[in-house]
Amino acid sequence: MDKGRLEALLAPVRVPDDPRVLVSSATADDAGVVKIRDDLALVSTVDFFPPMVDDPTWFGRVGAANSISDIYAMGGVPVSAVCVYSLPAEVPEGAPAAILQGAVEKCVEADAPLVGGHTVKDTEIKFGLAVTGTVHPDEIVSNASAQVGDVLVLTKPLGSGFLCTALKGGRLDDDETLHVMEIMASLNRGAAEAMVDVGVSSATDLTGFGLLGHALGMAEASGVSMRIDAANVPWMMNLEKHATPQNTCGGLNTNMRYAQDRVAWTGGTDLQRSVLADPQTSGGLLISVPAARADALLAGLEAKGVATRAVVGEVVARADKAVEVV
User: Fold this and answer.
1) Which pLDDT band, with edges at 50, 70 and 90, does 10 fall under?
2) Per the confidence metrics, is the pTM higher than 0.90?
3) Beta bridge partners of 85
């Protein structure tokens, strides 16, 4: 759903203040955080969606990695998960178990056991996880604390929206299909550990609102502006070949409409701008780090095996627009 439309629909909701709540929905962060004691807070999140790939096991892996990523984006450690599962009456034999098995693999990799879940009947398969994690109250990495002078670092390439649409249309070859599935299913664990070790200002993970939407959210929550260098943003393999009108999903158009009046478009080609708005599934972390620690973060990401570690922009003083694309 269009981010602006969603915000309008939910605007009437009033949630009472609670001193235990350290991060709420007020800043549209990746997860909520509730303080349990002086040295411990719980991080809670949930996410689920229909299949974006045909292989059920890979869908389970991607769905789990996507859900767990919200915990990592907060600087937290995932502890446990339960699944959220909808199944139609007519479903291919073996597919439900394969999806769940793929998710179990990722939960094991994240050291966050899958301990149960809830299933409902629906017209199509949907799957995801509700995940609980922990974080020290003084070490939360929120989307609301980016600082002027910070460097912006991205930890996965963009393009899953275009490529998954092409996949559904049978327009990806086997190598391209495996490439996009592996990227989406990779955990953001190493990236999160690196940013916690170094000490960063702010972070968010990239999902359905694209890099533009999530950068806007971070900028608005932090009271700053973000300058994105479109030419430095990494792309998935063969994205240029598949970034066509035929492979443009509806989410990209809604993201672009939302961003249109909130972004200063001073650079970037039409294609680069489109990729910035492309909805991501289980994308990387967008990290705002003090410039003096940027090299340490990049080195830490490399040491943790994070293949993509691109400097894509900087945080600047608040301007008329929350994001500038150069």
Assistant:
1) confident
2) yes
3) 119, 127
